[in-house]
Design a protein that fits this description.
heterodimer; A: about 120 residues; mainly beta; seven-stranded mixed sheet; four-stranded antiparallel sheet; B: about 120 residues; six-stranded mixed sheet; 12 strands
């Protein structure tokens, strides 16, 4: 299967700072990337969908100014959590899908802890 | 909107016993259906998918699932459980978002525990 690499796997940051998470498709061109948030022992909540070269579309209730998503190339998307607060602490997962694919492939996830 | 229901948030089976994880979906059109597995602190790995071809789908690690339109179900099975199967399992269905994007809607997940 295709490989999606997410970095970093864990990050701890101070409240008020910004954190960037990278999601790369290593062996295919990801025309669409998805960003999810997962709370402990819960399912994945879709935050936003981004198509390469276009602005991301955010799900209802997700603050676009707080969670900045960039998908500037066919192999890289970034999620920046701006002015992080402890309530932003969570597990963030990206997934990527190529143009001819029916399934999306997931990154390893990033555990964000805001202190 | 599409939805996915996974019956049983926790399932325990003995090693070597049959694994059955239930998934029902609601969809007004033929869906694409998926089963993913998640190990602690990791992303999701695709086990198998149904994309309107054969109704019995075989996946990795000995898992399979059968699409039953009449029951709107896509239950996941494995004949003989292994200790390494202990994980969280998610059923998912594709749907078209309000913005025209195709996205996955996940069930709430089932935690599978294997009893030695």
């Amino acid at each position: 299967g295709a490989v999606v690499s997410q970095h970093p796997s864990r990050v701890i940051c101070k409240s008020g700072t910004s954190v960037k998470i990278e999601c790369r498709s290593l062996d295919f061109q990801a025309t669409t990337m998805f960003w999810y948030r997962q709370f402990p022992k819960q399912s994945l909540m879709l935050m936003a969908t981004s198509n390469e070269g276009s602005k991301a579309t955010y799900e209802q209730g997700v603050e676009k100014d707080k969670f900045l998503i960039n998908h500037a190339s066919l192999t890289l998307s970034t999620l920046t959590v701006t002015s992080a607060h402890p309530e932003d602490s969570s597990f963030y997962i990206c997934s990527a899908r190529g143009l001819s694919r029916t399934e999306a492939f997931f990154g390893q996830g990033t555990r964000l802890t805001v202190v | 909107a599409q939805s996915v229901t996974q019956l049983g948030s926790h399932v325990s089976v003995s090693e070597g016993a049959l694994v059955l994880l239930r998934c029902n979906y609601s969809s007004s059109v033929p869906p694409y259906l998926f089963w993913y597995v998640q190990y602690p602190n990791q992303g999701l790995q695709l086990l198998l998918k149904y994309t309107s071809a054969a109704t019995l789908v075989k996946g990795i690690n000995g898992f399979e699932a059968e699409f039953k339109k009449s029951e709107t179900s896509f239950h996941l099975t494995k004949p003989s459980a292994h200790m390494s199967d202990a994980a969280e399992y998610f059923c998912a269905v594709t749907e078209i978002s309000n913005f025209g994007n195709e996205k996955l809607t996940f069930g709430t997940g089932t935690r599978l525990t294997i009893i030695p």
